[in-house]
Design goal:
The complex is a heterodimer. By secondary structure, chain A is mainly α. Chain A contains 5 helices and 2 strands, in the order ααααββα. Chain A has a single domain, classed as Arc Repressor Mutant, subunit A. The longest helix of chain A is centred in the C-terminal third of the chain and has 24 residues. By secondary structure, chain B is an alpha+beta fold. Chain B is 35% helix and 22% strand. In chain B, the strands form 3 sheets. Chain B has a 4-stranded antiparallel beta sheet. In chain B, strands 3-9-4 form a 3-stranded mixed beta sheet, with helices on one face. A two-stranded antiparallel sheet of chain B has the order 5-6. In chain B, β7 and β8 form a beta hairpin. The longest helix of chain B is centred in the N-terminal third of the chain and has 20 residues. Chain B is globular, with a radius of gyration of 21 Å. Classes of the chains: A mainly alpha, B alpha+beta. The interface between A and B is medium-sized, with 16 and 26 residues.
Chain lengths: 116, 235
């Protein structure tokens, strides 16, 4: 199932990533700067977020994202299967990050931390 | 924990996934686990992550079969206390471990060498896998096993297991069983497509799918007719 923006003004993309969970957001963020396979994804996510993604969680999220049309498997390199983010995936990620930014701004304001 | 022990634990965890998942991710998942453990990740946590993922996959794939997650829990529990497992799942994976021996199965003929090497490496076996040219229907199957002089009760220590050839015809070897604590050296020869001019290391019945007399609809013709289609002796 591919995700498109038509007629939903981004709601559907945000919903997809909310349901898909944090691992999916981390994976899309990692793939945003180029294709990666499983080990490279886990290493990159640990580096930019400090989170250690379990391999079982990783594969579950990859399959889910692929079935949603947000990522695409590339031809295997020996045993490794690299993935790339699709245009629908990039759109879903952008919508999700925008949403997080809005929540973050409100939260910071209410905590008296400044912000928007 | 020894490398053998954790490798076995992770193999068992990966076995809990549905076959479709294993065919696609199995080899990579085991390699990924090895890399994570090498980086310092706890093998127990890696295996646990796979078990949780397998339980999710089983529930998604076959929601009515609620026994699967229970089986997964049984597997991890048994493994952690070191009980040898015999899993009676009909969908045998590429690296199944049965009681007392490791069964290396070729489930994907296009990656036969990779599958066998992965199993042998994870058990620290000194078994080399070499490719040799073979007739088409034996490509991706085991052509021969050359094991050391070790014998057990007059039987070869490394046991060949027959399976279907490419195309489904019986008569090929698609798995071998190796004792868990095998320390000898062995060579396994796997069939690959022959290049022009090469001699077959092994061939199958010429009537099998992909073999000379099966090609081009020769079956059912008289002897005179297909003889015209066969290559001349000088080829």
């Amino acid at each position: 199932m591919a995700v498109t923006r038509s007629g939903h003004d981004g709601e559907r993309e945000r919903d997809v990533l909310r349901r898909a969970g944090e691992a999916s957001v981390l994976i899309l963020t990692s793939l945003a700067d180029g294709p990666k396979h499983g080990y490279a994804l886990i290493s990159d996510i640990k580096e930019f977020s400090g989170l250690q993604l379990g391999p079982g969680t990783l594969y579950g999220a990859l399959d889910r994202l692929e079935s949603l049309g947000l990522i695409q498997a590339l031809p295997a390199e020996e045993r490794r299967h690299p993935y790339r983010i699709t245009s629908a995936g990039a759109l879903a990620l952008r919508e999700h990050l925008d949403s997080l930014e809005r929540v973050s701004a409100v939260g910071r304001l209410r905590l008296g931390l400044g912000g928007v | 924990m020894s490398s053998y022990r954790y490798a076995r634990m992770i193999e068992i965890a990966v076995r809990c996934y549905p076959r479709k998942w294993r065919d696609r991710h199995g080899d990579e998942a085991i390699e990924l686990a090895e890399l994570l453990v090498r980086d310092g990740r706890s093998p127990v946590l890696v295996a646990w992550s796979y078990l949780r993922g397998a339980a999710r996959e089983q529930l998604v794939a076959r929601p009515s079969r609620r026994l699967r997650p229970a089986l997964a829990a049984l597997v991890v529990g048994s493994t952690l206390i070191g009980v040898p497992l015999v899993l009676l799942d009909s969908s045998t994976p590429a690296n199944a471990a049965s009681s007392g021996e490791v069964v290396a199965v070729i489930s994907n003929p296009s990656d036969a060498v990779g599958q066998l090497e992965s199993v042998f490496r994870s058990h620290d076996f000194s078994i080399e896998v070499e490719e040799e040219p073979s007739s088409p229907s034996r490509v991706g199957s085991i052509l021969a096993v050359k094991a050391g002089p070790e014998k057990a009760g007059g039987h070869a220590v490394v046991r060949e297991i027959a399976g279907p050839c490419v195309g489904g015809t019986p008569g090929c070897i698609d798995a071998i069983a190796v004792p868990l604590h095998y320390t000898g050296k062995a060579q396994v020869f796997v069939g690959r497509l022959a290049k022009p001019g090469e001699t077959y290391f092994a061939s199958a019945n010429i009537l099998c799918p992909g073999e000379p007399l099966r090609q081009g609809g020769n079956l059912g013709k008289t002897v005179v007719s297909p003889a015209h289609d066969l290559p001349s002796k000088d080829c």
